Amino acid sequence: MQSGLKNSKYVPQIVSRQLFALDPTQRAWIEVSGKSIEYNVRAIKSLLTNGCQFMAVVKADGYGHEAKFVSQHAIKGGADKLGVATLQEGLYLRSEGIKEPILVLGNIYRREDLLICFQNNLMPTISDIKQCIVCNEIGEKYKQLFYIHLKIDTGMSRLGFEVKNFVQYFENIIALENIKIDGIYSHLSTADALDASHENSYANIQRRTFLEVLANISIKKYPDIKIHLANSAGTLIGKEFHFDMVRIGLCMYGYKPSQSQKKLKLKPALTLKSKVSFIRIVDNKVGISYGKKFITNKKTKLAVISIGYADGIYRTLSNKISLIHNSKMYPQIGAITMDQLMIDITDANDINVGDTVILLGFDKGKCISPIDWADAASTIPWEILCAFKNRLPRVQI
Ligand SMILES: Cc1ncc(COP(=O)(O)O)c(C=O)c1O
C-alpha cells in the first residue's frame, strides 16, 4: 500500500472517487425500469375497486431491484403504503426520505426495537398480546398513538394470533388507549395453486376463516381498520380477496405468480446484463469448466461471460439456461463458476469481446424470465430475484 493510503482520513475519499469513475456496465449489472414499476402498479390497481389500497412490498431490497428506487416509482404509480420485512429495511427507507406509511411484515418482539419502530413512524406487525401491551406502554410514555397492524394466522402457520385467541383478546386490545389498530391482516399460503379460485380451495378456506374471525369481533363497528389478506396471487384470484388493501410484490416487478389472469399484461422491471470478456475456440471432446460437466461434441467457439454464482446466478442452472445476444439465444455450457460462465457461440460471427449479453430480459421478441430460471432450478421466481448480490450494480433507467 502507498504511504498516503495508510492515512484513514484519505482512504474513503480515494476509494469513493475511484468507484464513481467506474462504469457500472463494464462487467455485469442489473437495469431496473422505474416506468415498468409504475405501469405494473397501475395495471394491478385497475383490477381493484375504488378505495381499495395498494401496499407495495419492497422487502429484500425491493426483491433485488433496490428498495428506494422501487418505492419511489411504486408511489408514483399510485401505491398507498409500503411493506418491508425488517426494521432495518424500514429505517433505510425513512433515512432516504420516504414519507409514506410503512408496515414491517416480520415479527418485532423486543421492546427496544418496537420503540425504534415507533420513533421512526414504522408500523409493526403484532401477533401476540404481550407486544400489544408493550406498544401501548410506549404510546403512553410518549403521549402519542402507536400505529400497529394485528395479524391472524388463518392457515399459513407462520406469524399471527391463533384464531381462537384473537377473538378472545380483541376486546382487551381495542380497549388499549395508546395504540391505534391501523390494520388487521392474514396471509395466504396457497394462493398460486391451480385450483385457488375453486370454492373449496385452501385459499378460500383461509378467506372464510378470516371472514369468520372478523364477524366474531364485529369488525363493522371499526370502519377505519384496514382489512387485508391478498398477496399478488391472492389479488389475481378475484375481488373477494381484496378487502381494503392488497399487498403486492411479485406482480409489481412484472411477473405473474400463476397462469391466472391471462389478460393482465405486466412489464418485467429488471434486465440482467453482462459482457463478453474473452472468446476462444476449443477442440471436439474437450471438457468445459470445473468437473468437466460439459464435453464438446464438435470444435466449439466459446464466449466467456463475466458473471457467476457470486453475483447470484445459481450454480444449479449450469447447462440449463441460454443468453441473448443481438436477439439470438446461445446455450450456457459447463459449470457456472464463481465469477464467470461460458456460452457456446459456434454459430455466431457477430460476437466480439466487450459485447453485451442479456441473461434475463427481452431483446426483440426473445425473452428470458426469472420464471424460466426458477423452473430450471426447481425453485420459485421470488428466490431467483432475491439471490442477486450487491456486487451487481443496479442501474436505474
Ligand atoms: C406478508 C406478505 N404479504 C405480501 C407479500 C407479497 O407477496 P407476493 O410477492 O407474492 O405478491 C409477502 C411476500 O412474501 C408477504 O410475506
What share of the residues does DSSP label as strand, in percent?
A: 25-35%
Overall 3D form: elongated
Model regions low in confidence, pLDDT < 50 over at least 5 residues:
1-8
Structurally, how many domains make up the residues? 2
Mean pLDDT: 95
Estimated radius of gyration: 25 Å
Number of helices: 13
CATH architecture of the largest domain: Alpha-Beta Barrel
Largest sheet: 9 strands, mixed
Approximately how much helix is present in the residues? 25-40%
Bound molecules: pyridoxal-5'-phosphate
Structural class: alpha/beta
Q: For the record, what CATH class of the largest domain applies?
A: Alpha Beta
Strand element count:
20
CATH-derived topology of the largest domain: TIM Barrel
What would you note in describing this structure?
Helix content is 30%, strand content 25%. The protein has 397 residues and is an alpha/beta fold. Strands 1, 11, 14, 15, 16, 17, 18, 19 and 20 form a nine-stranded mixed beta sheet that branches. The chain is elongated, with a radius of gyration of 25 Å. It binds pyridoxal-5'-phosphate.
Write the layout of secondary structure elements.
Layout: H1 3-6, H2 11-21, E1 28-32, H3 34-45, E2 53-57, H4 59-63, H5 67-77, E3 81-84, H6 87-95, E4 102-107, H7 111-119, E5 122-126, H8 129-142, E6 146-153, E7 161-162, H9 163-174, E8 179-185, H10 202-216, E9 226-228, H11 232-237, E10 245-248, E11 270-282, E12 287-288, E13 294-295, E14 300-305, E15 322-325, E16 328-333, E17 341-344, E18 356-363, E19 366-368, H12 370-376, H13 381-386, E20 394-396
Parallel strand pairs: 1-20, 2-3, 2-10, 3-4, 4-5, 5-6, 6-7, 6-8, 8-9
Antiparallel strand pairs: 1-11, 11-14, 11-18, 12-13, 14-17, 15-16, 16-17, 18-19
Helix pairs in contact: 3-5, 7-8
Bound molecules: pyridoxal-5'-phosphate (PLP).
